[in-house]
């Protein structure tokens, strides 16, 4: 069985948001790399245009769908990379994650996350994209 431990080493600062500094993975069979998920429904329609909150909901729903497809769940996640198109969205993603991550990660241990603010995503309607690595 995969053993995933998340921790914040004493020699590092407390994380700025709901994430940990280090993930250690033991006894895994495979690593899974999930492409950056955008706010699109299963038919490819954009969800929540100009609505950051709605886009977050759809992006993380899509991540959950990808995990379920491989027989995994959020407990298998070992790292996120989050892309935002505006620094104005930084407090919004922190608020969303503070509120929603306890539901997705009931142990209150959250995987490492790298947050980047970039010029734009593949379509200007998208405000957030999240790439995920999981271990099975």
Describe the protein.
The protein has helices at 52-69, 90-104, and strands at residues 3-7, 22-26, 31-37, 77-84, 113-117, 128-135. With 136 residues, it is of the alpha+beta class. It has a single domain (3-135), classed as 60s Ribosomal Protein L30, Chain: A (2-Layer Sandwich). The chain has a four-stranded mixed beta sheet with strand order 3-6-4-5. The protein is globular.
Largest sheet: 4 strands, mixed
| Number of DSSP strand runs | 6
**The CATH architecture:** 2-Layer Sandwich
* Unreliable runs: none
What is the domain total for the residues? 1
Number of helices: 2
Strand arrangement within the widest β-sheet reads 3-6-4-5
Sheet-strand content, in percent, reads: 25-35%
Average of the residue pLDDT scores: 96
Q: Termini, distance in Å? A: 8 Å
The backbone outline, from C-alpha atoms, is: globular
Q: What structural class is derived from the secondary structure elements?
A: alpha+beta
Overall CATH class? Alpha Beta
CATH topology: 60s Ribosomal Protein L30, Chain: A
Radius of gyration: 15 Å
H/E element string?
Answer: EEEHEHEE
- How much helix is in the residues? 10-25%
Q: So, the CATH homologous superfamily?
A: RutC-like
């Amino acid at each position: 069985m995969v053993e995933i431990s998340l921790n914040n080493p004493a020699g590092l600062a407390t994380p700025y948001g709901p994430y940990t500094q280090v993930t250690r993975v033991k006894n895994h069979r495979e690593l899974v790399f999930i492409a950056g998920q955008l706010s699109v429904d299963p038919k490819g329609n954009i969800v929540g245009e100009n609505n950051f909150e709605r886009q977050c909901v759809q992006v993380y729903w899509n991540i959950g769908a990808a995990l379920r497809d491989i027989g995994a769940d959020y407990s298998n996640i070992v790292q996120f990379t989050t892309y935002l198109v505006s620094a104005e969205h930084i407090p919004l993603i922190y608020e969303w994650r503070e509120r929603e991550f306890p539901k997705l990660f009931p142990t209150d241990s959250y995987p490492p996350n790298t947050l980047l603010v970039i010029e734009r995503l593949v379509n200007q309607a998208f405000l957030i994209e999240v790439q995920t690595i999981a271990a099975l």
